[in-house]
Write the structure tokens for this entry.
Amino acid sequence: MITKDTSIEELVEEITGAIPYLMEHGIKCIACGEPIWGTIESAAKEKGFDDAAIAGFVSDLNKLVQKQG
């Protein structure tokens, strides 16, 4: 299960669709081919997203997990 405290590195290793999803929302998750350190929450807050938006990201990412199987 993905939470706001899930690291970006763990996220991109587990969910192939996470990178395009985060990039569409302006959250940089890859630099020079390597995952960015930090959590979903810290990366989103750096871009100005509030707690409600972060909860939405977590929900969407968990849906991606379910689709991926």
Summary: The chain has a mean pLDDT of 87.
